[in-house]
Design brief:
single chain; 455 residues; alpha/beta; 6-stranded mixed sheet; 12 helices; 21 strands; 21% strand; binds zinc ion
Length: 455
């Protein structure tokens, strides 16, 4: 086919919509799986995914600290846990999309040889299953040497090729592309106003001042870049020279960010004012949470492990036994109300709620996609040129990485999207609140829920 003109993407009749049609903002609930057993995982996701119909995926541990905890391996790092087949299936179904590091070593640092065997065991198992994990989530404090060093925790060794705790090669094999390294923020990111938002502009100025002070007092490694304050992701080079996309999570509590993120902090993090601002600013929000906090024990909630240990000393319970749990009231009323409100915004097509891996992949494709338009008098062709992926270098994107992308077009019914030699399947949308028409690629698939129904 001969095309008469080559147009720049900046021309008004074809442009990339900020979010998939019809949404105007994006939210993912991103949970650290600390102190969670299988039954609690099922109960919580039944409530979120089945009752509220919110597509929420979770994280997993490689190695457990407590006998009742859900993980691939027992405490000894060698014995496969009874939860392993459940985790295999949950990962394949998209109910789990993140690795909360190779294991929970909050009590004592890992033995380096066992750690490497553990990392290789999990990686080989997942590769055999045909599963890929794209997200790594930092866990806990320093006995956890498997973490990746970052500006807040520079003692970690997971990405240091000279350390016996080096395991980042397995992360690479597993397909890890996005890492949370501990950055928390309490405003929407990658908004349509970006750095020009007056509130953010003030914070950027304060941050610059803080960075100068850090340089003067010899704490250069603590410098926070302005991208960390404005963008959902920022490219980060690890000590083994691998580049990943680090991302920031959202957390807000009136008493400050030192509070533990749990099921009882949703009332602050997702209050209606937060969602309103998110929609006005057309931003991204990846919520920092621990879905199994407060811990449940015999139907009661415990804010921290210390209170459970005190009861154990008095002989009321045994932390080394199987955990008996009931989940009568997982989310108290104020937290349930904000979750219902979020679900309503999602079901009304206002806020796109999706598993973290989908939101991050979408962000990456939206930001780094290169495309152009060719047209003749009959139709327009949007040609996908490449993805300037900072973690791999420029490459042709997979079709599933383009899921959800939506192009405004004045003639959507005469427009096609082409990747390589293939015209992709699109749907035509009615006009949105800007009055413009668009065409979309299908959204990424939702987590399968059979495991929650059958277990
Ligand atoms: Zn953790």
């Amino acid at each position: 086919m001969q095309y008469s003109k080559r147009l720049k993407p900046s021309r008004p009749f074809v442009s990339l919509r900020k979010f998939p049609f019809p949404y105007c903002a994006g939210v993912a609930i991103c949970s650290d799986i600390d102190d969670c057993n299988r039954q609690t995982f099922i109960d919580i996701h039944r409530l979120l995914n089945l009752a509220l119909k919110l597509p929420v995926a979770d994280s997993f541990f490689g190695r457990k600290r407590w006998p009742w905890q859900m993980a691939y391996y027992e405490n000894d790092c060698r014995t496969i846990s009874a939860d392993a087949p459940f985790l295999d299936q949950a990962i394949q179904d998209g109910l789990i999309d993140s690795l909360h590091t190779w294991g929970d070593f909050q009590d004592a640092r890992p033995d380096s040889e066992s750690l490497r065997k553990l990392a290789s065991g999990i990686t080989n198992r997942l590769i055999r299953n045909g599963s890929q994990i794209k997200i790594w989530i930092h866990h806990g404090t320093l006995p956890n040497y498997q973490n990746i060093a970052n500006r807040l925790h520079d003692g970690c060794r997971g990405d240091d090729p000279g350390s016996p705790f080096y395991t980042a090669e397995f992360m690479q094999k597993l397909g890890i592309k996005f890492c949370w390294l501990g950055e928390l923020i309490d405003w929407p990111l990658s908004t349509h106003r970006g750095n020009f938002n007056p509130i953010i502009f003030r914070r950027l100025a304060v941050n610059t001042f803080k960075n100068v002070v850090k340089c003067f007092i010899g704490r250069r490694q603590r410098i926070r870049s302005s991208k960390m304050l404005t963008d959902l992701c920022y490219p980060q080079q690890l000590r083994n020279n691998q580049t990943i996309l680090a991302f920031s999570r959202f957390f807000y509590h009136p008493d400050g960010q030192q509070q533990v993120a749990s099921r009882l902090t949703y009332r602050h993090c997702l209050k209606p004012q937060v969602l309103e601002r998110l929609m006005v600013e057309q931003g991204y929000l990846i919520l920092y949470t621990h879905l199994a906090f407060p811990r449940l024990w015999n139907g009661e909630m415990f804010a921290d492990i210390k209170s459970l240990r005190k009861l154990e000393k008095k002989g009321y319970l045994n932390l080394q036994s199987s955990q008996k749990q009931t989940s009568a009231n997982l989310f108290p009323h104020p937290d349930m109300e904000v979750l219902k409100n979020l679900a309503q915004h999602y079901h009304l097509g206002k806020i796109w709620v999706t598993p973290t891996v989908n939101l991050l992949t979408y962000w990456m494709s939206w930001h780094y996609l290169k495309w152009h338009v060719e047209e003749n008098k009959h139709r327009q062709v949007i040609i996908i040129d490449k993805l300037d992926d900072p973690t791999t270098g420029p490459r042709q994107p997979d079709e599933n990485e383009l899921a959800g992308l939506c192009f405004y077009s004045s003639i959507p019914e005469k427009t096609v999207i082409r990747l390589g030699n293939k015209d992709l399947k699109v749907s035509i949308n009615p006009h949105d609140n800007t009055g413009r028409y668009s065409l979309s690629l299908a959204l990424p698939p939702l987590p399968k829920l059979d495991l929650l129904k059958n277990e």
